[in-house]
Design brief:
By secondary structure, the chain is of the alpha/beta class. Strands 7-8-9-10-12-11 form a 6-stranded mixed sheet, with helices on both faces. The protein is globular and about 80 Å long.
């Protein structure tokens, strides 16, 4: 294994080519480079010129809620009042824009726009066509060979789309669509006011933090650090440091839990809060919902662990009337535990409805698309899908999927190299911080330091699950502060090992600390 110092670390991180030619917001591609964006925007502008109603249909996950927030604030900034937004209720309306949903909400609409959904909205397309309502789909999910009937479809994964980066989230697609409307209108709208939403959405949907996503997340985090928006003020009051990892851990679950447990409009109101008091009030409500979510999730995970169907690369579990809002999280946990892709379903009246989560590079959407004959409905990404099927089709689906599973190449989450304890300092941490934000597509550097000895340790946290250490290098007398979150076992003073770790900054002492990844 190679040895690392500050110079080799800098070279390794530079080779990641994270910017991909986009060093600042001015480098972002223009709205007309997103195929069909201007065409769709023109249709919306024509309706606006006539004062007609625009109905936007969002989605109940964090990305869809952020996309909805972008649309609401954009039309508010334009001062256009004949605008409505609806986010489907998971347990009443089901997923995405549907004919049933439009039957409830769209009779006065002249144009229906979907954000973060719609690429499989076949029934909705027919409903709009029969009523001569313009239907515009903005989405980022993978399309099938057959597309819905829509006047305009804007999706970076369309075969005819030459946008420079495919892997952008639904909120970013919606933002580009709004930018196209702004361009046609010649309106004075500051598109940077949406960066906070774009950062949260890109992090939530685990977009690779390179190119477009990197600059949007970086600038969104900068906005959260200095903006006077109620959302930014709330986040600064709750997080000691604002990073992609902290937002993913502390804020994104709150956005998701609203749609999982109740109504996604609660999370939308949180993003759009007009005052810090409102943001704080809704934040507390979301915290309570998230506690409920964890309880339900743990209960269903326990049941899922007892009722599994396993094959070589797949594990499946289902139960009667399991809470649909947590099935994706349970599938993720099951995939990690079993080391194979997992599907978890709720069974009701002979129909299985649920979620799949990938493991080991399995591309789930590419794998299940050829198996549509087994399925009632499906959609999603390489790593996560939602599907429904008849119970009687499950066995055939599993057997066929097992034999046709598509795998993508995955990079090793490798240790960068061995580093001497004497080289672990502020300068090394500063180099790492230059390449933030870290996340999907830009993993945080992991180092190995050999023969470190536990000189002292202290359990932390209410349940004493975290351990704080002073580690010593007997060869040179260097002492290092370290922390291990959710330590798998109690350690002993005097224990020596080759420690795998990330670097972090101690916010209280403003100094380097080791965040232990593995202590053998």
């Amino acid at each position: 294994m190679r040895h690392i110092d500050k110079d080799t670390l800098l070279q390794i991180l530079l080779e990641r080519d994270l910017e991909q030619g986009i060093a600042n917001l001015r480098d972002l591609p223009k709205p007309d480079s997103l195929t069909h964006a201007l065409k769709g925007a023109q249709k919306v502008v024509e309706c606006m010129n006539k004062g007609q109603e625009i109905l936007v249909v969002g989605d109940y996950d964090a990305d869809g809620i952020c996309a909805s927030a972008v649309m609401c604030r954009f039309f508010e900034s334009l001062g256009y009042e004949n605008f409505r937004l609806v986010i489907p209720h998971r347990f009443v309306d089901g997923y995405g824009v549907s004919a049933a949903l439009l039957e409830k909400y769209a009779h006065n609409a002249s144009v229906v726009v979907s954000v973060d959904n719609g690429i499989n909205a076949f029934c909705a397309g027919e409903w709009c066509k029969e009523r001569d309502i313009i239907f515009i789909i903005t989405d980022h999910h993978t399309p099938t060979d057959t597309l819905p009937q829509a006047d305009v479809i804007i999706d970076p994964y369309l075969p005819d789309c030459n946008f420079i980066q495919k892997s952008i989230c639904g909120a970013v697609v919606a933002w580009y669509f709004c930018a196209a409307i702004k361009q046609i209108l010649g309106a004075c709208v500051d598109m940077s006011i949406f960066l906070e939403y774009l950062a949260l959405a890109s992090i939530a949907d685990v977009m690779p933090l390179v190119g477009i996503n990197r600059i949007l997340v970086k600038k969104g985090i900068e906005s959260l650090c200095k903006s006077s928006s109620p959302l930014a003020l709330l986040i600064r009051s709750k997080l000691k440091a604002i990073s992609a990892q902290n937002l993913a851990f502390s804020i994104v679950p709150l956005l998701n839990c609203a749609g999982r447990m109740a109504n996604a409009h609660l999370a939308l109101n949180f993003l759009l809060a007009q005052s810090l008091a409102d943001a704080l009030r809704i934040y507390d409500e979301l915290l309570e919902l998230n506690i409920q979510r964890k309880s339900v999730q743990n209960e269903i995970l326990s049941l899922a662990q007892m009722t599994q169907i396993e094959s070589e690369h797949i594990v499946v579990s289902y139960g009667e009337d399991w809470h649909e809002g947590v099935l994706g999280i349970v599938a993720s946990s099951l995939a990690e535990q079993k080391g194979k892709s997992a599907f978890v379903f709720s069974h009701n009246n002979g129909v299985l409805k649920g979620s799949g989560r990938s493991f080991g590079g399995a591309n789930l959407i590419a794998s299940i698309t050829p198996l549509s004959a087994y399925l009632l409905r499906f959609g999603g990404h390489s790593g996560a899908v939602g599907i429904s099927l008849q119970l009687e089709q499950l066995e055939g689906f599993i057997q066929t999927l097992e034999s046709t599973l598509v795998f993508d190449e995955i990079g090793e989450n490798a240790i960068l190299g061995v580093i001497e304890s004497a080289n672990i300092n502020d300068e090394l941490l500063a180099i790492c911080e230059r390449f933030e934000p870290f996340g999907e597509g830009n993993p945080k550097p992991v180092f190995l330091c050999e023969n470190l000895c536990i000189q002292s340790l202290k359990p932390l946290g209410k349940d004493k699950k975290h351990l704080s250490y002073i580690l010593s290098d007997k060869s040179n007398g260097v002492l290092l502060e370290a922390i291990e979150f959710f330590a798998p076992q109690m350690r002993e003073i005097g224990q020596i090992g080759n420690v795998q770790f990330e670097l972090m900054r101690d916010d209280y002492k403003n100094k380097v600390k080791l965040k232990i990844v593995q202590f053998p």
